[in-house]
Inverse folding.
């Protein structure tokens, strides 16, 4: 089937929940993809911050094929060696205490909200259940996580929404302070907002949030589903700020494209869950955890985060150069290989033109180009992407 045939069949049989580009990818290698018509693309999106090691990476192929030939799944009624091992790595890397595994970012956040409520209610009374989140945040698509998301467009039509969420302005400490009540149990935020347009928390803001949480006895939850696992040049984005959360959520890059989610908490907070409180049938199975182990170990063993930092700096310099050249580029921002380019132009048209030229990027909010390259991107590939973007921007 070619792109058009797959698109036609998709329109006939698949629910219309995505504004899809009418093409399908069939093969990938490194940071490159080939569509069903045989056209080749350089991928600066990585499956939305998922394929951190690119496509068909040998360590992932080996881990998945070897594990699939042994055991893929047994349920969490028994211990799973690979789950125990990845838990140890995540706990040691994060400085937290215990991990829980699920299958997606929304599920990780859902479990974080449940744990925060359970812990706070047991410790401070039944009325402690409110979670404060922020404007332009994105926490997932389940009813609870969509309610936690500070963008009404994701909530419209799904009312009544689960209650217990309040919103404060991102990077506005006074606004956050004014939203805290006797019912507040936690503050949840993305250290670098992804869907919201690549907005990094200001260091003073995050420091203030931590102090406020300490002062009021609130749990601090970091949603690092998008910015975690090396993308900012540190294993977790919060390590760039030197501020420790009580609960951390991960998904996207954790197994480089195999579905997995994780929620990690300090020992004290994790003890809020006892057997029966939370579960996931598939969560943390042999196959998912073997893949996560292969990905994380590869990142650590090859100092890939140094490469992320180096390439991030290189690309930033190049994009700053484009900003000097094109007056409609408002701002280049982000951290490591999580880059946003805000334009006063039609971002979706730029995206379409880049696709025509064989470069995959993303656009959020209509005017922020979002670039999330793989961690194995080379300088030559970076130059190629910058060249295509330059060519496209020249036509705007
Ligand atoms: C993608 C994302 C989610 C949701 O993850 P899913 O795996 O799609 O459920 C949650 N939080 C953040 C910050 C995300 O970027």
């Amino acid at each position: 089937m070619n792109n058009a045939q797959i698109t036609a069949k998709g329109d006939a049989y698949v629910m219309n929940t995505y504004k899809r580009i009418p093409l399908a990818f069939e093969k990938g290698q490194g940071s490159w993809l080939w569509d069903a018509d045989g056209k080749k693309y350089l991928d600066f999106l990585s499956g939305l911050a998922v394929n951190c090691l690119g496509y068909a990476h040998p360590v992932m192929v080996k881990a998945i094929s070897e594990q699939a030939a042994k055991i893929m799944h047994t349920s969490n009624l028994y211990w799973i060696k690979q789950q125990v091992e990845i838990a140890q790595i995540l706990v040691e890397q994060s400085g937290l205490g215990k991990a829980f595994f699920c299958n997606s970012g929304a599920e990780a956040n859902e479990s974080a909200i449940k744990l925060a409520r359970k812990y706070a209610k047991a410790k401070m009374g039944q009325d402690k259940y409110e979670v404060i989140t922020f404007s332009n945040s994105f926490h997932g698509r389940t009813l609870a996580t969509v309610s936690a998301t500070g963008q009404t467009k994701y909530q419209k039509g799904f009312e009544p929404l689960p209650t217990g969420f309040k919103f404060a302005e991102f990077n506005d400490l006074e606004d956050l302070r004014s939203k805290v009540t006797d019912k507040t149990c936690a503050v949840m935020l993305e250290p670098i907002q992804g869907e919201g347009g690549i907005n990094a928390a200001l260091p003073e803001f995050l420091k203030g949030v931590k102090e406020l949480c300490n002062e009021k006895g609130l749990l601090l939850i970091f949603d690092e589903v998008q910015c975690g696992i090396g993308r900012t040049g540190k294993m977790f984005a919060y390590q760039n700020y030197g501020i420790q959360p009580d609960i951390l959520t991960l998904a996207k890059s954790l197994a480089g494209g195999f579905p997995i989610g994780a929620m990690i908490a300090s020992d004290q907070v994790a003890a809020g869950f006892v057997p029966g409180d939370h579960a996931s049938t598939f969560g943390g199975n042999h196959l998912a955890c073997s893949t996560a182990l292969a990905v994380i170990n590869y990142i650590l063993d090859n100092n890939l985060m140094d490469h992320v930092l180096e390439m991030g700096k290189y690309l930033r310099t190049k994009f700053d150069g484009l900003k000097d050249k094109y007056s409609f580029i408002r701002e280049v921002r982000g951290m490591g290989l999580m880059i946003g380019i805000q334009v006063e132009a039609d971002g979706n048209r730029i995206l379409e033109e880049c696709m025509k030229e064989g470069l995959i990027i993303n656009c959020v909010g209509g005017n922020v180009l979002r670039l999330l390259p793989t961690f194995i991107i080379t300088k030559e590939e970076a130059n190629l992407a910058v060249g295509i973007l330059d060519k496209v921007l020249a036509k705007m």
